[in-house]
């Protein structure tokens, strides 16, 4: 596990880009953090790190956004999901089998959906723009 400090939204995005460049297709990134912590900013950085030219926004009402390119990113926002059953109903396993990187906001809502090999990203607000970001399951250089 590594802990990073971000002083701004742009630094959070840069850390997301750094992570995305260092993980293989098929990786699941389970994200945790309170509302407004910076999870979507982190995913925006991931898209940038994957070379995707797209507008990244939180899929709170659609549940899933897909960003397609040479490397794919599937962005889940599970804030409105009540548990694993609902996630599996929308095709969770099909998404996993595509080989895309899956970034999952509000992972705490579906703890049984992960198989133990996911990368974890925990973002804590420590100030107005300051964040402590803990990344587990992978080492960033």
Which secondary structure elements does this structure contain, and how are they paired or packed?
Layout (H helix, E strand, L loop, with lengths): L1 E5 L2 H13 L6 E5 L6 H11 L14 E4 L5 E5 L6 H6 L2 H6 L3 E5 L13 E7 L5 E6 L5
Parallel strand pairs: 2-5, 2-6, 4-5
Antiparallel strand pairs: 1-7, 3-4, 6-7
Helix pairs in contact: 1-2
Describe the structure.
The chain has a seven-stranded mixed β-sheet, with helices on one face. 26% of the residues lie in helices and 26% in strands. The radius of gyration is 14 Å and the shape is globular. The chain is α/β, with parallel strands linked by helices. The model has no long low-confidence stretch (mean pLDDT 91). It has one domain (2-136): Rossmann fold. A hairpin with a 5-residue loop joins strand 6 and strand 7 (131-136). The chain is built from four helices and seven strands, in the order βαβαββααβββ. It has helices at residues 9-21, 39-49, 84-89, 92-97, and strands at residues 2-6, 28-32, 64-67, 73-77, 101-105, 119-125, 131-136.
Broad shape: globular
N-to-C SSE string, H for helix and E for strand: EHEHEEHHEEE
End-to-end Cα distance: 12 Å
What CATH first level would be assigned?
A: Alpha Beta
The count of helical stretches stands at: 4
Taken together, the total number of domains comes to 1
What fraction of residues sit in β-strands? 25-35%
Alpha-beta content class:
alpha/beta
Radius of gyration: 14 Å
Which features would summarize this protein structure in a list?
141 residues, alpha/beta, Rossmann fold, 7-stranded mixed sheet, 7 strands, globular
